[in-house]
Amino acid sequence: MKTKNESTTNCILNQFQLENLRRHVYKSSGKTILDPYMQVFWCWLVERVPIWLAPNMITLVGLIINVATTLLLVYFSKNGHATAPPFAYIACGAGLFLYQSLDAIDGKQARRTGTSSPLGELFDHGCDAFSTVFVIMAYGIATDLGPSLWFFYLCCTCNFVFYSAHWQTLVSGELHFGKFDVTEAQVFMIMVQFYTGCFGCDLWNYEITDGFHLKHLMLIFSTICGVGAFVISGNVHSILSGGIGKNGATIADTSVLSPGIPILLISGMFYKVVAESESQLYQQNTVLFLMTMGLAFTKVTNSLVVAHMTKSPPTLVVDSIMLGPALLLVNQYLGAPVPEDFLLWLVMLFTAYDSIRYCADVCKEICSFLEIPCLTMPKDVKLTAPPITRSSSSLKSRFLSSPTKRPSTSSLSSRGSQPHIAEVAPVLRRSSSRLAGRRNTDSSGSGTSLSDRN
Question: Which residues are catalytic?
Answer without folding.
Answer: 125
